[in-house]
Amino acid sequence: MNSRALTHIALAASLLLFALVAGAAEVIRFGYLELNEDSRYDERKAFFRTLSRPLGAPFAGAEVALRESRFVGQAIGVSFDIVRARGADAPALLAELEKLHAEGVRHFLVDAPGKVVAELAAATRGRELLLFNVSAPDDALRQAQCQAHLYHTIPNHGMQADALAQFLVAKKWRNVLLLQGPRDEDKLIGAAFENSARRFGLKIVDKKDFVLSNDPRQRELGNVGLLTAGGDYDVVFVADSDGEFARSVPYDTVRPRPVVGAEGLVAEAWHWAWPRHGAPQLTSRFEKQAKRHMGSADWAAWVAVKAVVEAVVRTGNAPFDKLVAYLGGEEITIDGFKGNRLYFRDWDRQLRQPLLIATHNAVIERAPLQGFLHQTNNMDTLGFDRRDSRCKP
Description:
α5 links the parallel β3 and β4 (130-133). This protein has helices at 3-24, 59-68, 70-75, 90-102, 114-123, 157-171, 184-200, 224-227, 279-290, 296-314, 320-327; strands spanning 26-35, 78-87, 107-111, 130-133, 150-152, 175-180, 203-209, 235-239, 259-261, 266-268, 334-335, 341-342, 355-358, 363-367. By secondary structure, the protein is of the alpha/beta class. It has two domains: 25-155 and 271-367, Rossmann fold; 158-267, Response regulator (Rossmann fold). Mean pLDDT is 92; it is low at 5-23. α2 (59-68) crosses α9 and α4 (90-102) packs across α5 (114-123).
């Protein structure tokens, strides 16, 4: 038998062995829970989508992470998969979760508004499972509504407001006009920024409510010129969760002032223009998968999967309790392509991470900014520090 034949036989044997190992590999499945209809991804509003609104459902971020994790899983004899489940509301999603949990699924990515996330977390307390909030920025989920098994990879309103506040302080734009919308989410964003202003020494010179309406009696409440007239200010902060009003504010203020918050300059977990730490390669992989730019929720879904994979690999696919201990501990190293080692805060399960302060097509800064220091971890200058936490899971 010649050497070429021996080579072919050896190659065939190797492929057969690989197939047998792959076939015998344990499958670790993720559950992905989302609503049938989620207004945050309403395509009818895509034409005025602002920087503060998601670019699309973040399931593609999880898919990219799973594809990246195939080879590391093979090293310890496991493979990773994900099951996508939908429901009309929290009870329906809970029913889907119960089905998957009965089949052995322990890790769930939750892509839903804050109220739904809170209901799911409360209903599954004490169960052998983990929930990863990938799209709800509500501060309450990290405070009074926190749960020990609820992890957050998306930054909360407080983190975003703190990042912008640091930027304003660094620029010496200390006097702020706050424009706030009528929705509950607008009020949460406005309250977060007011808290950040107190924390970093900014002055809110005026706070005005806006209403975007076709009612002639309310037309003045949506007039940018009238809302930005009056006393002087250095910058305008717009608390607008929907974004339709915010898109009209830049270049229409009475005074030539920068706009931040929902439009103009935003603080996000991810931006497609971030050029460092391998980010362009991740962005390219996502765009190939989803046929669009990568946004914050996409990154949050991606990093949630990567965090679990990292814990599985580093613990050798240890039992659930040991895996959870490693995932929530300080030894874990999660590379989020933002230049810092990422890991979860032990008091509220929020992922420590830098935020990108960006315009439509450029990243201007990364927070925390230089000079904003913390006694243990500078990333804890963003969001709820241990001393600020009201989380009692």
